[in-house]
Amino acid sequence: MPDHARLDLDRFLPYRLSVLSNRLSSAIAREYSQRFELGVTEWRVMAILGRTPDLSANQVAQRAAMDKVAVSRAVARLLASGRIKRDFDEDDRRRSVLRLSEAGYAIYDEVVPLALGFEQQVLGELPAQERALLFRLLDRLDELELRAESAGKDGAA
Question: How far from 60 is each of 44, 45, 98, CA to CA, in Å?
């Protein structure tokens, strides 16, 4: 057998984070998808708009690091179901902004406690110090990834 490059997936950070993220998202999604017929992308859009209203679809995609096409489809479904509203930016009438509707907030107000409860169930056995460390490390990894991404773009130019 030829000698090939080796990748230990158990020690490869992007793989580990992706698998964990998928498992956590799927576990939470089972609850809100059954109750509210929401997909993961739709819920992420709603979660972002619940915290930060009046964003464009592109801004939502950037904040969640999600594909613009997937966000656009989720936005279309949420608009059709009346869960979000689209208005025009007061400063730039060409730019539309999104926000949760009253029906959207009703769902948001039910899903948020479910999501927080699930997070507590997952993190509950970690002492407060370890939880704080986890989030500091995630913040640091986010910072380092953005720096590496920026350096990669600069090097490619």
Answer: 9, 7, 9
Q: HSE (CB half, 13 Å, CA atoms) of 7? A: 6
Within 8 A by CB and 6+ apart from 20, the residues are none
Please state, as a whole number, how many other Cβ atoms lie within 10 Å of the Cβ of residue 75.
22
Q: DSSP letters of 111-144?
A: HHHHHHHHHHHHHTTS-HHHHHHHHHHHHHHHHH
pLDDT of residue 102: 98
Distance CA 50, CA 45 (A): 8
* Whole-number Cα distances in Å, 5 to 2, 8, 39, 138: 10, 10, 37, 29
pLDDT at 76 exceeding the cut of 70:
yes
3-state helix, strand, coil in the chain (%, to 5): 70, 5, 20
Burial zone of 37 (CB within 10 Å; 0-12 exposed, 13-18 middle, 19+ buried):
exposed
- pTM as predicted: 0.86
Per-residue pLDDT tens over the stretch 11-54? 999 999 999 999 999 999 998 999 999 999 999 999 999 999 99
Q: Is the pLDDT of residue 135 over 60?
A: yes
